[in-house]
Each structure stands twice: as structure tokens, then as C-alpha cells.
Amino acid sequence: MITITDLRKVYRQGSREVVALDGVSLSVAKGHIHGIIGHSGAGKSTLVRCLTLLDRPTSGSVSVDGRELAGVSDRELLSARRKIGMVFQHANLFDSRTTAENVAYPLELLGTKRSKIKDKVSNLLDLVGLTQFANAYPSQLSGGQKQRVGIARALATDPDVLLCDEPTSALDPKTTDEILELIKDVRDRLEITVLIITHEMGVVKKACNSVSLLEAGKIVEHGPISEVVADIDGRLSHALLPLPGEMPQDLPPGTIMDLLYSGADAVHPVISTLARQFDIDVNVLAGSVEDLGGAQFAHLRIHLPVGVDIDAVTAHLTASGIAVSVKEA
Amino acid sequence: MDWLTSLLENPGITTALPDAIIETLIMMVIASAATIVIGIPLGVVLFLTAPGGLTPVRWISAILSGLIVNITRSIPYAILMLALIPFTQWIVGTGIGPYAACVSLTIGTVPFFARLVETALRDIPSGKIDAALVMGSSRFQVVRKVLLPEAMPGIMAGITTMVVIVIGYSAMAGIVGGGGLGRLAYNYGFQRFDSQVMIVTIVIIVIIVQAVQATGDWLTRRVDHR
After folding, report:
1. B195-223 vs B2-9: helix axis angle to the nearest 10?
2. B223 contacts on A by Cβ (under 8 Å)
3. Chain B within 8 Å of A54 (Cβ-Cβ)?
4. How distant is the Cα of A314 from the closest Cα of chain B, in angstroms?
5. Are the Cβ atoms of A92 and B130 closer than 8 angstroms?
6. What is the domain range of residue A164?
7. Pick from A236, A270, A288: which residue ends a domain?
8. Domain spanning B2-223 has what CATH number?
9. At what angle do helices B195-223 and B17-49 cross, to 10 degrees?
10. ipTM of the complex
11. CA atoms A130, A132, A138, A141: torsion sign
């Protein structure tokens, strides 16, 4: 469990003050995977540096399983850092060390006995499926394999939180899926709390239970995936279940509306019911249907001809538990 | 055959050459070892205290980088070795001989070698240092367990370059009393117009330098896992 409360980070650039984090608060329960998504410049890197204590936040707190990290003394800094295991975009393995030696590094820092390091390293390599590469150097590994070593290394000191900074941004789509599966597998087996910082919505879709949208140093939307998707006017919902941005040209006059529905409703024949009930022609312009956060969601853009009672249609749809947003009349 | 016969009877070759080779090797080994022992810590301190380094300390960086390293590097070795003769007499007890020459050889190459070490350290991607810190390494552990091993290929290549330069400087030091192949070439080859000794000396120096370079390259490849 990790709780971040009102985290602020202000940099000085000459006489100018740059607010990189402007009161970020979030809480992730044990065993959950939380995504923090944002464009470059939103404050993602600053957040990572504050969470790992590479930079001290200006104010606010970070606590892991009830232990406050942000305000620790310099003396406790090194042990505080071990509460959070970190996975980097480019793995950042040490080229001079073999796979096994890389995973052993954090244990060497703790002065762990050699025999114990050996056991632990072989367990971790088994966990990430790299046992046969124990004596290979990083230059002999593929990008995905390097990231697996990075994950094993991050887990070596049994941290409470696994912090992944753009873990798949340097990988191809297939390897991305493998690494996300591994992160989920690790979460299931170790019941660890995972925080994934990313700019890729696909990562959030595939791996996360909940998500926060970071923008200009603030969290502007957040919640469990199924909740943020259900908010038809929300930006995360649009990003998770995108429809084409442009309205089609040369349409007959009428009304364009977006519908969003989930769960059991998603498999209901919403459109044909609507057509029969109001005796109208419904034209589907665009749509996407996906499994998100364990439920099925459908996002449709439909066109209704002139003369239809929009209020009545909206009332009917809303009564069936469908979110409606009228785009253009 | 005549040339070869006279070569084997030339006292410059039969008597003076073996001693000269040994003197040159003494200067090479001692000055290089001293340069490594002083230069690696100095390079690490230059890297750590530089602005934006792991522990930026402005005054240490200014003194080491600005004053000592940059100024010493600006003085041509031929002048430095002459200027250092009183200091050498105080340290070694004599201003001549291969051991005395090691003092100015070391002082002349340390700043240059420290810069090579600093450059090798700078080539390490900052993400690796971040990774080491995030895992809870102390600064000393970062230096010993990450920075030096990761920079070892660069440092090894730097050591090779430095040893070759020490050989070159040792010839210069030899002329003003250091002994070795430099003095042999000067005394016999230049002052007595003995072209045989001159040629043999050149061949031997080329062989020594090539041997150093080949060994250095081999060691660099051995430690390079990038």
C-alpha cells in the first residue's frame, strides 16, 4: 500500500519558480496495479524522482505501508529507498555484471551472505524466466530480457512497492505484452503494490486496476478503470475507448450522439431496441467495444434523422443505464 | 653481414643497450604504476565534485580541475622536468638516474591520465547511477561497485595511452639524466653519429610501445562487456 499526500515539487530556475508537481495525492491498495498516465512535461519524471527520493519533494508526504519516506533523515535515506523497487525504461543494468550479478547487486549492498544471495538470485531468475541466462552479460540479452532482469533486480530486496517508469516504452508490442503479463504475474505471486508511470494508454488498458491522469503537475482524473471509462465526458474515457476525432462529412441532417454502456448492457441489442421502440433508422457512425477493468464497455457514435424526439430518446437510453452525450444537432 | 658483425661488436649495443633497456622499463613501470595509483582517485574526485556530479563541491573542483590539472597540463614536459629537478632532489635524494626521472614523469602524466579517467566515468549513462542510488547504494558503494567497474574499459584504454606517453616522456627525461634508451640514442646516435645504435634504439622502442599497446587492447577487450 502506498499513499501520496499533497506532494509538491518546486524547482528554481534563476529567479523563476517552476512548479513541477502541484499537490499530487493518490493511494494504491496492496496488490493493485495503478497507472499514472500523462504527456511528456506533465510531471511524470519529477514524480518518479520524488518517489525514489532522488529528489526531495518541496512538501507533502509519501508513505509505504505506513512508513513515511519523503521526510526521512539522510541517515535513513538508503534504507528508505529499499522500500520501493524500481524498474526503468532502459533497464539500466550494469554492463560489467552478469544477469545473476545484476540481480545480486541490491543484496550485496545489504551485506547478505553469499549462499543466501545465490538462493535468492536463482529464485528471482526463475520468477522472471531467465534461469538459463544467469551467466550472460546484458549486451547478450534482448530488450525484453533486459527488462526481466531489471524486474528481478527491483524485487531482490522484497520491496513493498514496485515502481515502473515507462517499463515498456522502449519495447515492441509483443514484448510489451510479455512484460506486462510478467508484472501482473509478479503482483499475483508476491501481492506487491505496483505503480506504472507511462504515456501509453495500451499499458493502462492491459495491466492496470486503476489510473490517474497527470497534467501540469496535477491529477485531473483518477479512479478504477471501470469508473473512469464510464464517465462519458471524461478524458480518460475518451482515451481508453477512442472514437474518431473528426465528425463524418456529407451526413443527412439530424442529430449525432455518443453512447457509452457497460457490463450486461454492452451485449444487449441497444441499437435495434432503439430503432423498434421509436420506429426510426439508427445509423452507427463509429464504435469501439473492449474489455476494460474486467467489464465489457461499448462506446458508439450514432446518427438519428430529423424529427426524432431527442429528449425522449435520451430519457429512454438513460433509463436503461446508458450514458448519452449529444454532440451535434 | 658486415653490418651485422659490426653491430654485434659495437660497444654501444653490447654494453650500453641492455642497461638502457632496463632503465627505460624501470621508468615505464614505476612512473605508470604511480600515475595509476594517484590518477584514478584524482579522476574519481574530479568526476564527483564537478558541477552536476554526484557530490558537487565547487571549491575542490575549482582547485583540482582549474589550478592543478589544467595548469600542469599546460606546461610542456621538457620544461616541467627541468623545473622539477630541485623537488626531485629533495624527494629521491638525487636529480639523475631512472628513479629520479620517475618523479617528473609521474607529475607530468597524472593530470592527463586523471582527465582520461574522468572522461571514462562521464561516459556512464546517468540512468545507471540513478539505478544504483535507488537501490540504496551509498556514494562510496556507487564509486566502488558501479562507477569503476562500468568505466573499466575506458580506464584500461586510458592506462594504455598513458603508458605509451610515459615511454615517450622517458626518452626526453633520459637526455637530461634519466638514462635509458633516450640517453643511449642521444649519446651514441646523435653525439657520436652512430647510426647503428640509433636504428636499434628506435626499433626497440617501437617494439616496447607496440607490446604495451597490444597488451592494453587485449586487456580492454577482456573487461569490456558492453
Report:
1. 80
2. 96
3. yes
4. 53
5. yes
6. 2-236
7. A236
8. 1.10.3720.10
9. 40
10. 0.85
11. negative
